[in-house]
Design brief:
about 200 residues; alpha+beta; OB fold (Dihydrolipoamide Acetyltransferase, E2P); DNA polymerase, domain 1; 3 domains; 5-stranded mixed beta barrel; two-stranded antiparallel sheet; 7 strands
Length: about 200
């Protein structure tokens, strides 16, 4: 599976980009906001989600890994295909989408083109507890705070939000500034291995 492409934008339109990687052009489907950020002839690094079907291999590209993860989470929801997921991310920022899902703001989600009420409700139901806290970092004095990688690491190990909160808030888990993420993850796993 292709997970990353680094190359030069050979051409682009409102929904696709051709990335030239050492003379090979990869056609990549991208959200509209990503397409407008890409300039022909510019170097680009795209995080790729690869979809394989019997008749096609399709690449979906994003400027950051968190956007790709959000795209893949959306695709896991019944009734949300890659086109719908890409359309959602073309119309709404990742942070706004996660906030709307976390707060079950169905009316906000149904304003998105191609998203009906039932699908919006399904998104909230299936994804509300899967969104890692690191995807919605707080801002300090107008600057984005550095996101803690520990909740995301625990979410990727299939821990629920309540379990992640318990581990992150435990006094036995060092703060982000006090220890590397590996040591913090080990401490968090020890906390979660004990019964409540």
């Amino acid at each position: 599976m292709i997970a990353l492409l680094r190359g030069v934008v050979a051409q682009r339109d409102l929904a696709t980009a051709v990335v030239d990687v050492n003379g090979v052009g990869y056609l990549v489907q991208v959200p509209a906001n990503v397409a407008t950020d890409l300039g022909e002839g510019e170097d680009v690094l795209l995080h790729i989600s690869t979809a394989v079907r019997e008749d096609a291999i399709t690449l979906y590209g994003f400027l950051c890994a968190d956007d790709r993860t959000t795209f893949e989470m959306l695709r896991e929801v019944n009734g949300v295909g890659p086109r719908t997921a890409l359309g959602i991310l073309s119309q709404m920022s990742r942070a706004d989408l996660h906030r709307a899902i976390s707060n079950e703001e169905i009316s906000v989600l149904t304003k998105l083109k191609g998203l009906g009420k039932k699908t919006a409700e399904r998104l909230c139901l299936e994804l509300k507890n899967k969104i890692p806290q690191t995807f919605t970092p707080t801002t300090i004095a107008g600057r984005q705070a550095e996101a803690d990688p520990l909740p995301l690491a625990l979410a990727q190990l299939d821990y629920r939000k309540s379990e992640i909160d318990r581990a992150v808030n435990s006094k036995e888990v060092p703060a982000m500034s006090d220890a590397p993420v590996g040591a913090r993850l080990q401490a968090a796993l020890r906390v979660l291995a004990r019964p409540i």
